[in-house]
Amino acid sequence: MSRPHALVVLAHPRADSLTAATAARARDALTTGGWTVDSLDLYREGFDPALGPDDEPDWTDAAKEYSAEVRAHMARVTAADLIVVVFPVWWWGLPAIAKGWVDRVWNRGFAYEPSTLHGKRMRWVGLAAGSAAHYATHGFDKALDLQLRVGISEYCGITDATVHLIHDTLAEPDVTGIDEALASRAGSAPAGRIR
Prior knowledge:
Blueprint: E1 5-10, H1 18-32, E2 36-41, H2 68-79, E3 82-88, H3 96-105, E4 121-127, H4 132-138, H5 140-154, E5 160-166, H6 177-182
Parallel strand pairs: 1-2, 1-3, 3-4, 4-5
């Protein structure tokens, strides 16, 4: 029986950032739990987030063949049972490189119309400088959940998706918040053993 496979996506320009340390902890927890892990560092791999004509959806042709770079990323998503996206929350949303990855890779005929992603699981893990109370007061937590879990994951057929925010990252840097994110479903197995 083959081991489950995860894709851990990192979206931060600095390799020494708390976001990078959190992604590394996710990779290590999953590996310890028996998963194989593909680590995708968008900055270090030189991913171009700008959507050009080659990767723009064709509304008359859902079978459009996208660029070689995008097809390679689609293959990595396809291979994963679990997708974990670790990112800093900038301006109450995804950083441009992560949004560009979704724009270019999660494309028509692959992620939607039709979706090939049913049955996958997804964890969005955002590192936020603000407190949980601040996010709740202004509804930023709900907005991120709606945008990422519903607007991207569920729209693309991934119903087992969660958004987990690790707060107060400037005051109390702590990468252990990823453990809760990996076990974010009530009654789920410990980190690294996501069902």
